[in-house]
Amino acid sequence: MKKFFALALVCVMALAALLTGCGGAPAAAGKQLAVQIGPNPETVDPALNSTIDGATMLLHAFETLLTIDENNEIQPGQAESWEVSEDGMTWTFHLRQGLKWSDGTDLTAGDFVYSWKRVADPNTAAPYSDTALGMVKGFDEAIKGNPDALGVSAPDASTFVVELGQPCTYFEKIAAFVTLSPVQQASVEANGEAWSVEPATYISNGPFRMKEWTPSSHITFEKNPYYWNAAAVKLDNLKFVLMEDSTAAYTAYQTGEVLFIKDVPTEEIPSLTKAENGGDFYVKPIMGTYYLNINLEHEQFQDARVRKALSLAIDRDHVAEVLMQGTYTAAANLIGPGITDADGSTLFMDKANGGQPYMSTSADLEQAKALLAEAGYPGGAGFPAIQYVINDSGYHKVVAEYLQQAWGELGLTVNVEVVEWSSFTPQRRAGDYDIARNGWSFDYNDPSSMLELFATGNGNNDGKYSNPEYDAALETARTTHDVEERFAALHTAEDIIMNEMGMLPIAYYNDFWLQSSKITGSWHSPYGYYYFMFADVTE
Hints:
Blueprint: H1 2-21, E1 32-38, H2 52-61, E2 66-68, E3 74-76, E4 79-84, E5 90-95, H3 109-120, H4 129-133, H5 139-142, E6 152-156, E7 159-163, H6 171-174, H7 185-191, E8 208-214, E9 218-223, E10 237-242, H8 246-255, E11 260-261, H9 269-272, E12 281-294, H10 304-312, H11 316-323, E13 329-330, H12 348-351, H13 365-374, E14 386-391, H14 396-408, E15 414-419, H15 421-429, E16 435-441, H16 448-451, H17 468-479, H18 483-500, E17 504-515, E18 519-520, E19 523-524, E20 530-531, E21 536-537
Parallel strand pairs: 1-10, 1-11, 14-15, 14-16
Antiparallel strand pairs: 2-3, 4-5, 5-7, 6-7, 8-9, 9-10, 11-17, 12-16, 12-17, 13-17, 18-21, 19-20
């Protein structure tokens, strides 16, 4: 029967093509926008993604309970309304009536129950599980193997209730976190890990649904007719062109193959920033930090003096202003600009370390050499060669070459390994490196979004940093009802990891990209995401 059906389908398609060739009306191509935001994504499973490019794709295919608009304000998403109990510990979301999956089947509150429990299930191994759900009642039991203990329920098909185990002043931002997108239980369970790689099984609930995925070429999404706000979606197709080579991306932009590129060749930036050439070139600040992971499971890095020596040898001003051509800003803290403190108006970084930067952004080679000698490696003698792992985009190569030189001044040997993007994050997560470039854009405006990364056991703690005092400070921040006490604990956590150099902050992020004036209605968020779901393309 399957063979008969397939043969019949081929015949029908051939007949349609014949009729078209004989004067039948051709199918409308529709309005398409092609963009480049990165190469092959590691994953487009909401629970497993931990990258900006993957998240940008997910934002177009899925919709969470709440969403974030172009003004970075929380708006209703799949939930049209919500209320919070007087003590702030119970959140009740009321779903819109008539919600559908992209295959036309009903989407209910029970789908959110399943999806949130899936993120908490240790068998899923969601990198963001603790960050996204650590404040929910029963999470500690859920992550140990009993996901049904998670405090989420669906009293009826349109009501989703979340019970918190500890206060969370920013929980509405968590409800808009792409990791907590609903996924269709039937498709996930029928297809296992493969559910998210085939258009036929990639069932979503957002403005677009997957139409085609050709690895190393493109992922095309088409307008989802079952999306509750489909009338606001102007594009028929949104094509993510998968390119790792920034030069190829730039060529595609110049020829009009794509109207937007995230990976701009760094050698083109000087000319693009000139007023007469830079009409399409944008530079916007985002909340995030470019830093280096140090593999703390390797014995040679367990002495904090070694890590501090590596840090002191880096001239961050040179890196940001010369190598990164002023598109980034030298970092003296882990938590950078844009993140607010307890009062919501003062910047967290301005109150860090008693109001002083943790370190100078210029290099101090003499102090670096002295610390390395104290740690038992005078002039670098006896120190193993460093395997420094990067992916090939942006400034990573030029920074790697600089680090070879800077750490070479300490007598250290640095071997650079360049890894394809789709393999890079799994390799880093597996600990197959000595030092690796890393970076993090905040998922919401709260210091915990970054500080949580370095908690013991966190799924995104690639360097395996672990300090009981650090964890205790984060626990205080999670559990206290006092806002001032909470932020004091967060400052303590940053003090601890910066004093130990548990990672090496290098620069604060800005995003830069090329975008055609033909695109209207898109926007960029301070978290580093690009939104095209309500965009239009003009001639």
